[in-house]
Specification:
Elements: H1 3-31, H2 38-48, H3 52-55, H4 57-69, H5 71-80, H6 82-102, H7 109-135, H8 153-177, H9 180-211, H10 213-220, H11 225-228, H12 230-250, H13 259-262, H14 266-286, E1 289-291, E2 295-296, H15 297-300, H16 304-331
Length: 343
C-alpha cells in the first residue's frame, strides 16, 4: 500500500467518524424546535453534554490530515468553499457558546435555544452543501469562476438531505438514551425521517449515475459491478430493520416489555450502518479523486518525506483519540437522568 493511499483511507476514517459521532449531536440541535418544553430541551442537552466537544475532534483531525497529506486538495477546497466553511464554523461556535450559557441563563434562555438550533442546522446544511458540490463534480476552472458556483439546486438538496440524515441519527440516539414519551416521540420522528433519507439517497444515486458516465460504468459495467450490488441491497435491508425497530419502540407504551426485548440500542447501530454503506458507495463512485474531475489523491499527495514525517504522530494520536472516545462513551453509557442539574 502506498503512503498516499494510506492517508486517503485515514482521511476517510476521520470523515466517517465525524459524520457518525458529531452527526447525531448536530442532529439534536436540528431536532430542537420539534420538542416544545424546557424539560425536553434540558433532556436533549444533557444527552450529548458529555460527548459533543469530543466528537468535533474528528473534524480537526480530518482537517490536519487533509492539510498535511494532501496540501493541493486542501488549498483548492479551502478557496473554493471559503464561504460555506466559514458559515459552518460560525454555526459550530454558536452552538458551543449556547451549551455554556443556556444552563446558566433565565430570561435569555430562549435566545440560547435558538442559537443552538440555528448553529447546528447551519453547520449541517453547509456540510451537505459542500458534499453536493463535490458529488456533482468540480470543473478544472471552478476556482476561477464565480465564488457562488457551489450554490446549485443539487447542492442545496444535498444540504437538506444531510440535515435529515443527522436528525435521523439523533432520533436513534435519543431512543437509546431516553425513556417514556420523549423516547416514543423520537421514534415517531425517526420513522418519518428515515423515509426522507432513503428517498434522498435514491435521488442522489440516480442523479449521479445518470449524469456521470464514469460512475455509471463503474456501477453497471463489467464483472466488478457484481461486487457492488450488495451495497444498495444491504442499505434497503438496514432501512427496513430500522423502520421496524423504531416502530416497536413507538408501540412500546401499549404493552410493557423488558428493555432487552425492545433492543433500544439497535436503531442507532442500524442508522450508523446505513450511513457507512452510503459512505462506501460514495467512495466507490469518486475514487481515486479527492476533487472529482480535477484532482486525484496521487496528484494531491505531499512528498513522501512529508508523509513519513507525519507517521509517528499518526501512530500516537489515532489510537489515543480512539481510546478516549471509547472510554468516554463507556463511562457515560445508559439512560440520561433528568434529576441531574447542569451538565
Amino acid at each position: 500500500m502506498s503512503l498516499g493511499l494510506f492517508y486517503l483511507l485515514l482521511l476517510g476514517f476521520a470523515i466517517l467518524m465525524y459524520v457518525l459521532l458529531d452527526g447525531f449531536d448536530l442532529g439534536i440541535g436540528i431536532l430542537y424546535p420539534w420538542f416544545n418544553t424546557d424539560a425536553e430541551h434540558d433532556h436533549l442537552m444533557r444527552s450529548i453534554a458529555h460527548v459533543w466537544d469530543g466528537n468535533e475532534t474528528w473534524l480537526v483531525f480530518g482537517g490536519v490530515i487533509l492539510f498535511g497529506a494532501f496540501p493541493a486538495a486542501y488549498a483548492s477546497i479551502a478557496s473554493t468553499f471559503y464561504l460555506p466553511i466559514m458559515l459552518m464554523l460560525i454555526g459550530l461556535i454558536f452552538r458551543g457558546v449556547a451549551f455554556e450559557y443556556r444552563f446558566k441563563s433565565d430570561t435569555s434562555k430562549r435566545y440560547w435555544n435558538m442559537a443552538f438550533a440555528v448553529g447546528s442546522s447551519l453547520a449541517a446544511f453547509c456540510q451537505g452543501l459542500m458534499l453536493g458540490t463535490l458529488v456533482q463534480g468540480v470543473p478544472a476552472d471552478f476556482i476561477n469562476q464565480s465564488s457562488f458556483n457551489w450554490l446549485s439546486p443539487f447542492s442545496l438538496f444535498c444540504g437538506l438531505a444531510v440535515m435529515a440524515g443527522y436528525a435521523l441519527l439523533a432520533c436513534c440516539y435519543l431512543v437509546m438514551k431516553s425513556r417514556g414519551e420523549l423516547q416514543q416521540k423520537a421514534a415517531r420522528y425517526g420513522q418519518r425521517l428515515l423515509l426522507i433519507v432513503m428517498l434522498s439517497m435514491l435521488l442522489v444515486s440516480l442523479w449521479t449515475v445518470w449524469i456521470e458516465p464514469e460512475i455509471r460504468a463503474r456501477w453497471f459495467g463489467g464483472w466488478h459491478a457484481l461486487w457492488l450490488i450488495p451495497l444498495p441491497l444491504l442499505s434497503v435491508l438496514a432501512a427496513r430493520l430500522l423502520f421496524r425497530d423504531l416502530g416497536r419502540v413507538n408501540r412500546s407504551h401499549k404493552a410493557e416489555t423488558a428493555v432487552h426485548e425492545r433492543h433500544e440500542e439497535r436503531p442507532f447501530w442500524l442508522a450508523s450502518g446505513l450511513f457507512m454503506l452510503a459512505f462506501i458507495g460514495l467512495l466507490v463512485s469518486v475514487f481515486p479523486y479527492l476533487l472529482p474531475r480535477q484532482l486525484t489523491y496521487m496528484e494531491a499527495a505531499a512528498p513522501d518525506s512529508s508523509l513519513i514525517f507525519m507517521l509517528p504522530g499518526i501512530f500516537i494520536f489515532v489510537p489515543l483519540i480512539c481510546a478516549y472516545t471509547l472510554w468516554g462513551y463507556k463511562i457515560f453509557a445508559g439512560k440520561v437522568e433528568d434529576y441531574q442539574e447542569g451538565y
